[in-house]
Amino acid sequence: MRLPHVPHVPHVHRRDLLVGAAASLPFVVAGRAFAAPQAGSRLLVVFLRGAYDAANIVAPTGSDFYHQARPTIALGRPDPADPKAPVALDADWSLHPALRDSLMPLWQARQIAFVPFAGTDDMSRSHFETQDTIELGQPVGGHRDYGSGFMARLAAMLGQGDRPIAFTDQLPLCFRGGGGDPIPNLALANVGKPIDARQAQLIAAMYQGDKALGPSVDKGFEVRDTVYKALSDEMQAASRGAVSAKGFELSARRIGTLMRDRFNLAFVDVGGWDTHVNQGGATGYLADRIGALGRGLAGFAEAIGPDAWRGTTVVVVSEFGRTFRENGDKGTDHGHGSVYWVMGGGLSGGRLAGEQVAISEATLNQNRDLPVLTDYRGLIGGLVQRQFGLSPARLATLFPDARPADLRLI
Fold it and tell me: Rounded distance, CA 44 to CA 343, Å?
């Protein structure tokens, strides 16, 4: 479909605006003219900002230590007769039940693989520093060039054939620099309110006049709101303006349509994963969000269509994992190793990929969290090397001082 030209818009100097009418999503494109894409490879990187609790999503349910370390939030043992039980991936690992209907069919079709013990060698456990580490793709400990994100470098390497876009509120660090033309970004609408003030008022009104319980109820809501504000401020900061999981679910099909028809290199961030308090197990806060994410990814795969899906790779990452033991607030704190996801129609999936170690107290990193055995730069570098045919010299520019990991997924 031809895209109508939109005339001058205030504050945008000498730029063309294109409106994706077919996808019903407006976006600004600076200095680029996009032709219909040639048949070929597509890459979507999904960044879960806030550090999702990988150990409760792709869970080591075969480990007794897992159940001991998480007495209130661990998933149960797999049970085919129980729809609320996790789904066995192999003898050691299980998939969260909220992903049973969305991602399990992709697993059975060998179109998704999970890479446990994945992450960075950044040990800061800082959301911001480690997010920057991943987006820059540069060695930890050296000088950081904030004007050179790894996806911008990849876009520049692909040259005239690349059609990049960021589905973000602001242009992300990973797409900054690279020496090519400016890269467009599109903000996805965030949806949902975590606290229903009206419901709280109705509950408080029920106890109004009760001298014994009324003040306690009022005080309880006051404390709850204070604690929530402190925690939500931290989570929002960790999310850096990323769309919510529900917002991603609502937009994922349109992202698939855009990548099928127009773009071949994309980035989207999804926030809300900093679960210090009451994260839940098979149900609850984390389950609701991971369920929305899974439905969104399944919708993306369907919307992009079978032909484009065969040449598409989706990589789901997060800045770090979380503590293997639950904390005193029935949540988890900042950790280290995580589980990354790789999806695609041409994938050799249906397996846990990469180096692994039996999980026990002795194998934890610093007696706290999962170790990192597969570096994110090696993982993504190995994927894009195969997918886009990058030479060793170009790969060394994309991820300096990093060796590609050949996990035989593509």
Answer: 10
Q: How many CB atoms lie within 10 A of CB 68?
A: 11
Nearest to 304 by CA among 114, 115, 37: 37
d(CA 86, CA 105): 14
Closest C-alpha to 369, from 393, 329, 333? 333
* Closest alpha carbon to 255 in 299, 310, 315: 299
Q: Is the Cβ–Cβ distance between 113 and 350 less than 8 Å? A: yes
pLDDT digits (tens, 9 = 90+) for 312-358: 999 999 999 999 999 999 999 999 999 999 999 999 999 999 999 99
For residue 161, pLDDT over 80 is answered with no
Going by C-beta distance under 8 Å and a sequence separation of 6 or more, which residues neighbour residue 88?
A: 61, 78, 94
Number of Cβ within 10 Å of residue 199's Cβ equals 9
Report the alpha-carbon distance of residue 305 to residue 282 in Å, rounded.
Answer: 31
249 alpha carbon, distance to own chain's centre: 12
How confident is the model over 383-395, as pLDDT tens digits?
999 999 999 999 9
Phi (first) and psi of residue 90, to 5 degrees = -155, -160
Tell me the CA distances in angstroms from 279 to 52, 284, 330, one per residue in order: 10, 6, 7
Which residue type, as a one-letter code, is found at position 382? Answer: G
- SS3 labels along 27-91: EECCCCCCCCCCCCCEEEEEEECCCCCHHHCEECCCCHHHHHHCCCCCCCCCCCCCCCCCEECCC
CA distance 341 to 113: 6
The whole-angstrom separation of Cα 67 and Cα 71 is: 6
Closest CA to 28 of 9, 47, 2: 9
Distance CA 338, CA 54 (A): 6
What does pTM read for this prediction? 0.81
Q: What is the rounded CA–CA span in Å between residue 51 and residue 55?
A: 11
